[in-house]
Every structure is written in C-alpha cells, then in structure tokens.
C-alpha cells in the first residue's frame, strides 16, 4: 500500500487517489499533490497578508449578535490571532475593548 499524505484540511489519514488528484473521504476535499499552494495565507480587504499579532482596523460597522450595540467603522483591534481553517469564515480571533473576545472575518478588516 502506498504512503499517501494526510488531508491538508482535516488531517485525515484515509486519503486515496482519484486520477491525478488526492481525495479525503471524511471532508470531501480534493487536491493536486503536485501543486504547493499555501491556502493558509489570510489577507485583509486590501489584499495585504495578515500575521498573528498584527493590528487591524474595522472597515465597516458590524452588528454584534446578541447585543444592541455594534462595532463601529475605524475600530482598531490589536494583537489578532489567525485561524486559517475556520469553517464559518471567521478567520480572526481577537479581543475588542467593550466587547471582549470576538471572531472576525478578514474581509471586514484592513491592516493598521
């Protein structure tokens, strides 16, 4: 039996070949083992690469679920933490003054 790599999305060891692609039966992810695309790169609304510990600025007002207040445009968020494989699209974890721990989408922030 061949030694195939684990799935890059869910780290499953049960990958198999389907033509020139590798397939994960657990999450359904398909990839070409010949290409080395770094999908874990997270970019802001302007296309700048974000890193752990960066500071970002919110580019539009955001409604906060379960709260009557919202995060206003221009709010600066310091010391972000990136979560590359977030299933819900919220790929930034941070703490915002007055709100506490939050998850944000990279599509609503710009690098400060």
From TrEMBL:
InterPro entries: YjdM, YjdM_C, YjdM_N
Domain Protein YjdM C-terminal stretches: 42-112
Span of domain Protein YjdM N-terminal: 4-32
Superkingdom field: Bacteria
Pfam family, one: Zn_Ribbon_YjdM
Family designation: Belongs to the YjdM family.
PANTHER family found in the cross-reference section: PROTEIN YJDM, PROTEIN YJDM-RELATED
Name assigned to this protein: Putative alkylphosphonate utilization operon protein PhnA
Organism: Peptacetobacter hiranonis (strain DSM 13275 / JCM 10541 / KCTC 15199 / TO-931)
């Amino acid at each position: 039996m061949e030694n195939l790599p684990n799935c890059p999305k869910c780290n499953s060891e049960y990958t198999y070949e389907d033509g020139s692609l590798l397939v994960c039966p657990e999450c359904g992810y398909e990839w070409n083992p010949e290409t080395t695309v770094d999908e874990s790169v997270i970019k802001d609304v302007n296309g700048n690469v974000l890193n752990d510990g960066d500071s970002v600025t919110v580019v539009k007002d955001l409604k906060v679920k379960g709260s009557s207040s919202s995060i206003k445009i221009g709010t600066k968020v310091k010391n972000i933490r990136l979560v590359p494989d977030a299933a819900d699209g919220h790929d930034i974890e941070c703490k915002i003054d007055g709100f506490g721990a939050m998850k944000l989408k990279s599509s609503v922030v710009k690098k400060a």
